[in-house]
Amino acid sequence: MSLEQDIKNIVESCGAKLYDIETVSERGKTIYRVTITDKEGVSLDKCVQISQLISPLLDVHPPVQGDYNLEVSSPGIERKLKKLSHFENSIGEKVRITTIDGEVYEGELVGVEDKKITLQTSQGKISIDFDNISSAKTYFEW
């Protein structure tokens, strides 16, 4: 079993879903970031609980070489959409998509089927091929 699968199992055993795992460098420090979601919202207590369960696993199977900090957090209201599962879990939310050729679309995410992302925009429905997306994120209108 892979490290990501082990982490996913831990997250799910706590009643949450694994959203993403990434290694980033911020202010000269390496951060191994585990992002989780929960239908009832992600509390600080839930992040601490999951962090305490993942930490011993990472002591045995380090995710990166050298020093790093483990961070368990929520993706937030405005979050990047990188995987098809991210889009599937964001149906009903407002998204901004930039395609490989630089076109930008905004609207409500209404469907994901056969690697096609469907938005309801002010100009009507539009489908975008997942492989043609250079970046995407949810956004919140105040």
TrEMBL record:
The record's principal subcellular location, in a coarse class, is cytoplasm
The UniProt entry's coiled-coil ranges are none
**Gene Ontology cellular component list:** cytosol
Q: Where would I find the Ribosome maturation factor RimP C-terminal domain in this sequence?
A: 81-142
The record's section on Gene3D superfamilies has: Ribosome maturation factor RimP, C-terminal domain, RimP-like superfamily, N-terminal
Where does the record place it?
Cytoplasm
Q: Which Pfam families match?
A: DUF150_C, RimP_N
GO biological process terms held by the UniProt record: ribosomal small subunit assembly; translation
Q: Which InterPro entries match?
A: Ribosome_maturation_RimP (IPR003728), RimP_C (IPR028998), RimP_C_sf (IPR036847), RimP_N (IPR028989), RimP_N_sf (IPR035956)
Q: Which UniProt keywords apply?
A: Cytoplasm, Ribosome biogenesis
Organism superkingdom: Bacteria
Q: Which residues form the Ribosome maturation factor RimP N-terminal domain?
A: 7-78
Entry-linked NCBIfam families: PRK00092.4-1
The role this protein plays is: Required for maturation of 30S ribosomal subunits.
Entry similarity comment: Belongs to the RimP family.
Q: Which protein, by its recorded name, is this?
A: Ribosome maturation factor RimP
Q: Which organism is it from?
A: Nitratiruptor tergarcus DSM 16512
